[in-house]
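Hi everyone,

Forwarding the result from last night's run.
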Amino acid sequence: MLAKRCFDVAAAMLGLLLLSPLLGLIGLSIRLDSPGPVLFRQTRIGRHGVPFTILKFRTMRADAAQACQLSVRADPRITRAGALLRRTKLDELPQLINVLRGEMSLVGPRPEVARYVAWYPEAVRQTVLSVTPGITDWAAIRYRDESRLLDGAHDPERVYRDQILPVKLGYYLDYVRTRSFGQDVRILLATVGALLWREVPALPAQADWRTSVIALLRGLAALEVAAAHLRAAVFPGMRSISDPPLWLQALAFLTGFAHQAVVLFFVLSGWLVGGSLLEKFRRPLAYEHYAIDRISRLWTVLLPCLLLSAVLAGQLPDWPVLLGNLFGWQTLVVPAFGGNFPLWSLVNETAYYAMFPLLLAAATATSSARRWLAAGLVSLWLGLAPAALSLYFLVWLIGAAASRLRLPAAAGLAVPAWLGFAALAAYLRLRGWNDDLDLRSIGQDLLYGAMFGLCLALLPGGARRGLTPRLAESAAGLAAFSFTLYVMHMPLLWALQPAPLDPYATTSLLHYLQWLAAIVFGSSLCYAAFEAHTGAVRAWLKRRLLPEA
């Protein structure tokens, strides 16, 4: 899997670069804590049964006996520094070098010593060893406190062989049979979450087809925007290249749907956000819950992004401008903060979050005073906002309206509708207006949005056999951090400063994919640090602000 290998190499290089100060401090602490080498080396069994030397930070005394390969939490051989490294799993960081060597992957079944591999049933051994072993997987997450489970056992190896290893092998087999890029991303996110917050997200047994498709589209749209901006940063414009190679033409075409991706975001936002409010607006405190949901959703990602932009610029934040950007006023009232790294389209998104409940209140409020107040605010906004900002609200409303449609009787139209939507997207990519969202593009984008809304309404709900588990897995991996990827990829791109690539060298495509993998990996880390806490932030705000809810 070339894509997996490219991602591994890019992520390992980025990790070693960013973590180099930490790696140095860990090495120093090991040397000061006990005599002996910094690194622990051990022979493990890799892909196709080929032995390799795995690297770890040493966590035991250098003269510790190795008769038993397992260790319990209270093992007297563990040093003071080693206890901390084991608890935080920082002792595994040198395995990034194994990843660069090609001996390991970021995600895959954990490699075992030959003694334990011999315990594998033959059929299981052939399957598990058919893939490159990894630093983490679902089994590693579940048994991250394995030494605690073995603590106090009269025969730790027997407990491991009879109770723990069979469960691990089940995880290994499941990974090999269903592995995908989306699953790898989700495992990486779950690993970070388990290490930082001791929480492991669970995979749903069955996923709703409509939900899975929408999640997958969100993830792909964010990836498309990031890929487009990266291509523009490292390759010259196609019009400036004479006789561009075929691979570059294909890359330019595939990464040229950023405009359509933004419009797709608007429709999906209307479907998810507007549709949710339409479903709940008659409940008590519905608008208050909506406001907290929207603010927490935006600010858990935007605030870290804006502060990171200030750090990258090497200056203190301009607080009035930063606050204006948090409220979506950039380019309207205040300038864009930090080169507008959070992206200009969030002005539209934030405005539509505010305008939709006002529009709904103007149409449905039981009090005439509230109706007139809401209608007045809507009219005032329409009068003051730029024309393009107001007109693109119609695209957002298409998504909200489509969320109320269910067309089961027209299910036979689903395939033609999606094929038509794909053909329209390709046509607009080649012949349409693909720059800013302005009056020149509103007509085509309304048509594009309406076609997409129809496709969403034709999606069947409920669980489906066949593709759904794999689709749900990939969708969960991408969509989990799609908003963070959409917002954070620009400051990450600016921080990485990738060098311009030769448009005629085929190896440039590999370098491009490595940079893209680095941006995706960096965004996943940002997601784990910030956006993953949105639910907790939201719940805390509601407890403080809506105690009666």
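The first helix runs from residue 2 to 18.

Cheers,
N.
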